[in-house]
Amino acid sequence: MNPPSPWRLFLFWSLIFMCLTILSSGLNTIKCRAHAFSIKEATIDDIQLAFRHTQLTSRQLVEFYLNEIQRLNPLLRGVIEVNPDALYLADKADHERSTKAPVSLSKLHGIPILLKDNIATKDKLNTTAGSLALLGSIVPRDAGVVVKLRKAGAVILGKASLSEWAHFRGSNVPSGWCARSGQGKNPYVLSVDPCGSSSGSAISVAANMAAVSLGTETDGSIICPSDANSVVGIKPTVGLTSRAGVIPISPRQDTVGPMCRTVADAVYVLDAIVGFDHRDKATGEASKYIPYGGYKQFLKLNGLKGKRLGILNNTFDFEDSSISQVFYRHFKTLRKEGAVLVDHPDDFNLEDILSASESDEGAALKAEFKIALNAYLRDLVASPVRSLADAIAFNLKFSKLEMIKEYGQDLFLDAQATTGIGTKEKAALLNLSKLSRDGYEKFMRKNKLDAWMIPGAEGAPILAFEGYPGISVPAGYIEGQPLGILFGGLKGAEPKLIEIAYAFEQATKVRKPPSFRP
C-alpha cells in the first residue's frame, strides 16, 4: 500500500489543527464533523438534535454559555450570578441521556435556563430581586416553576438581572438597573432602554448568554423587554404558571413566563412550567385552560388562517413613516396568510385603559405589594429583612451603595403607607374589573376577535388588570433598534395566540442576532 502523499498529509493535519483550534477557542462550533454544530442562535430543537447525534453534550453547551457570560456580561450586565453547580447539572444530564433515562426525552432536558432573580431556587444561588437587602437570604424551597423545570431536566444556569424589586422600588429607578449588577444594556443598541423589569432575561437570551430564560410580569415586564430586545415573550394567563416562591408585587396580576429567541422555544418552556401547584391557589382555577397534550400542538404554519385580529385605534400610525411601513408590510403578510384584520374595532378606548393604569392600578398594587411582600419575607428561612419596613430602613442605611439618593424609593414608601385593601383600593379594583370585563371582554366578543395586535408594549396594561395573556414577537428594526408586535387575547387564549404568533414568526422571520451598536 502506497503511503499518503504529502498533500494528503497536509490536508489531514490542517483539518485536525482546525478542529482543535475551534474546540479550544470556546467559539460557536462544537466538534469536528462534516456538519459542525453551531451553538450561537441554536434553538431547543437544534440542541436536542445535536444531543441525539452526539455532536454536543450538555457540558459543552453549559461551558459555551458560561464563556459567553464571562465575555459579554461585563458590558451587558444581563446576568447577576451563575450557578456554581451548572456543570455538575450538565454532567448529570449527559449521564441520563447516555443511560436513556425517561427524563432525557423531555424537550428541556439538558437545556440551560436563566431565571429572573425574583424566582426562588433552593440551591447555591441567591434570590434577591436585584437588591442587596436580600443578599444572603435563604428561601424555604424552590419556586413552583423551578420544581417543574428540574423535573423536566433543565439545567439552572443562573439568575438574570432585573429592574430592582421588579421595578417597584422607586419610580425614578432606570429600567434594567439593580444594585447587585448595575445597569443592564440593550445588546442591539447599547444606549437604548432595555426595558423592565425582566430586562436581564431578555438581554441574556438575545445575546446568546443562555438558551432560554424565565421572566415575570405584573404589567409589561415580560412584554416590554421582549419588544425592546427582539425576543419572544409569553405573558401567560394569571395562574397558568405558579407564582409560589416568586418575590411578589400582586397575586392578582403577577405571572411567570418564558422569554426566548423563538416562539417554539418559548412554547416548550411554557409546556414545562404550567400546571397546578398547591402553594398557589390561582393555579387550581387556571388549570382548566391547559389543553390536553400541551401547547406545542399549536405550533402551526397555517395558524393565521381564519383568525380575526383587531387593530386597536390608530396605534400603528407613526410619525416615522419607516416604522409604519414595517408594520403595513406585516399587515399584507397577515392577510396573505389568511388572517382577517378588523380595523378600528368598535367599543374600545385604549386611552381609558392607560389612564386607569396610572391611577387605579397604582393604588391597588401598592396595597397588594405590602401585603404580599411581607408574607414572602416572613416565610424565608433567614433574611436580613423581614418586612417592607425593614427593606426601606436597609435602603436608607446603605443609601450611597444603593443609589437611593439618586433613584429613591417612593413606591416603597407609598406602599408602606397603605393599611390594607380599604375603601380607596376597593373602588380602584372595582373600576379595573369594570374596564376589563365590561369593556375589554365585551369588545372582544362583540367584534368576534381571536386576538388583537398592537406595536411595542403599549398594550400591556390591557392584559394586566384581570390577568389576560399576550405574546410579543420580533417584528423588525429601525436603525438597529428592535420593534415588536404584541398579540393579546382573553383568559385561556394561549392556543390561539401561539398559532398566531408562530405563523407570523415563520412567515416573516425578521429576527436577527444583536449588533452591539453604541
The tally of beta strands, per DSSP, is: 15
Average pLDDT reading = 92
Report the sheet with the most strands, covering strand number, pairing sense and barrel closure: 11 strands, mixed
Per CATH, the superfamily of the largest domain is Amidase signature (AS) domain
With helices defined by DSSP (H or I, 4 residues minimum), what is the helix count? 20
Task: Report, as a whole number of angstroms, the end-to-end distance.
Answer: 61 Å
Low-confidence region ranges:
9-26, 31-35
Please write out the topology:
Layout: H1 6-25, E1 29-30, E2 37-38, H2 44-52, H3 58-76, E3 79-82, H4 86-98, E4 112-116, H5 144-151, E5 155-160, H6 164-167, E6 177-178, E7 182-183, H7 199-206, E8 212-217, H8 223-228, E9 232-235, E10 255-260, H9 263-273, H10 282-286, E11 308-311, H11 321-336, E12 340-343, H12 350-358, H13 360-378, H14 388-397, H15 399-402, H16 404-407, H17 410-416, H18 423-446, E13 451-455, H19 460-464, E14 470-478, E15 481-488, H20 494-508
Parallel strand pairs: 4-5, 4-8, 11-12, 11-13
Antiparallel strand pairs: 1-2, 3-5, 6-7, 8-10, 9-10, 9-14, 13-15, 14-15
Helix pairs in contact: 3-4, 13-17, 13-18
Short description:
By secondary structure, the protein is of the alpha/beta class. It has helices spanning 6-25, 44-52, 58-76, 86-98, 144-151, 164-167, 199-206, 223-228, 263-273, 282-286, 321-336, 350-358, 360-378, 388-397, 399-402, 404-407, 410-416, 423-446, 460-464, 494-508, and strands at residues 29-30, 37-38, 79-82, 112-116, 155-160, 177-178, 182-183, 212-217, 232-235, 255-260, 308-311, 340-343, 451-455, 470-478, 481-488. The chain has two domains: 10-52, no CATH class; 58-291 and 301-508, Alpha-Beta Complex (Amidase signature (AS) enzymes), CATH 3.90.1300.
